[in-house]
Amino acid sequence: MGGTVSVDEGVHVVVVGGGFGGIAAGNQLKSYKIPFTLIDVKDAFHHNPGALRASVESGFAKKTFIPFKETFGENFKQGRVIDIDLQEQAVILESGEVVHFSHLILGTGSSGPFPGKFGEPVTMENAIQMYEDLVEKVRAAPRIVVVGGGSAGVEMAAEVKTDYPAKEVTLVHSKIPLADDQLLPSVRQGLKEILLGKGVQLQLGQKVTNLRDLILNEAQPDMRILTDKGLEITADLVICCTGIKVNSSAYSRAFHDQLAENGALLVNEYLQISGMENVYAIGDCADIKEPKMAYHAGLHAAVAVENIVRSLSKKSLKMYKPGSLSMLLSMGRDNGIGQLYGYHVGKFVVVQAKSKDLLVWKSWKEMGQTAPP
Questions:
Q1: What's the DSSP call for residue 353?
Q2: Cα gap 348→340, rounded to integer Å
Q3: Alpha carbon distances (Å) from 142 to 57, 168, 199
Q4: Which of 296, 292, 285 is nearest to 262 (CA)?
């Protein structure tokens, strides 16, 4: 991050979305002393990698929500962006308020089912309580089914089994291999072995057919979970970790010609939206061929802000180049597996680097605040 940049009176950057990319962009704009407004529907940043442990370990949720106001002050505005007026260079909030921009960074992220994702416009206190309520339901349920074997599903099953080894935990996944298809085969096989070692029952290569009829995240004795292979599982709690979608509602009308099939925004090598010089997309809502990860969103933010700075001083822009995949999967606080720069890494490295505290300290440091004990 650099020093102060000389800016014209009309320069005002609007950042839509307060996820990992949004807070990184906000902090860098703040360090350059470039006027900006960060807008998010929530009043607090959510450290999403900690969401699954917060569903199992009481007291952990309060470490995963960090208030925006204490970090960004008057540069933060709570609200839901419902449209963008490109002609007037303004974002329009659900309240009717209009916020003008000279440059726009879209970091709206992705949404999915609770507890893996959290996007409700509730207070930080209410959000924390929702996780604490789920902790009690997990504690009370003897049989738990996790639907979805992507990275969230395997981590969820591992968290439950780590704290409650006696519970019957079943993971149902539509594919045979687990987690992200860009992971090394040895990492995906290692995930399977860790789950089996913890006693998780794996039902792979089959889909749950009655998911819409099930009550999720609520303790309900003797629920029947049915699959397309004729399997019937009885459980007392069902947690869904599938159906992650790009959050496109804020921009889909304004950029309907620049959308990928999944709703992400088509960007060039400078992370500018196709055909736009002053609008950037970062994180999950940018159509970049790499896994959707917090780490990547931060890298995108650095490039987008640097390119705004360079454009203000008429300098050539910086290109974003996706690197080799790095992904660490926490399998409870005592285990993990992953890969760094394309190389397989095992339990010791992942436990020390991520599994013990899920990097919550890093987000509190980035937000310039002190984490609760």
A1: I
A2: 13
A3: 16, 6, 14
A4: 285
| Phi and psi torsions of 48, nearest 5° | -55, -35
pLDDT, tens digit (0-9, with 9 covering 90-100), for 289-341:
988 899 999 999 999 999 999 999 999 999 999 988 899 999 999 999 999 98
| Joined tokens for residue 279 | 């609008």
Q: Of 274, 339, 276, nearest to 89 (Cα)?
A: 276
Q: In what order do the strands lie in the sheet with 98-100?
A: 81-85, 90-93, 98-100
244, amino acid identity: I
The SS3 of residue 254 is: coil
Contact 93, 73 (CB under 8 A): no
SS3 322: coil
Distance CA 174, CA 228 (A): 10
Q: Which letter does DSSP use for residue 266 in this model?
A: P
Read off the pLDDT of residues 50-97 as tens digits, 9 standing for 90 and up.
999 999 999 999 999 999 999 999 999 999 999 999 999 999 999 999
DSSP conformation class of 265:
B
Tokens standing for residue 303: 């490039």
291 and 338 Cβ atoms separated by less than 8 Å: no
pTM over 0.90: yes
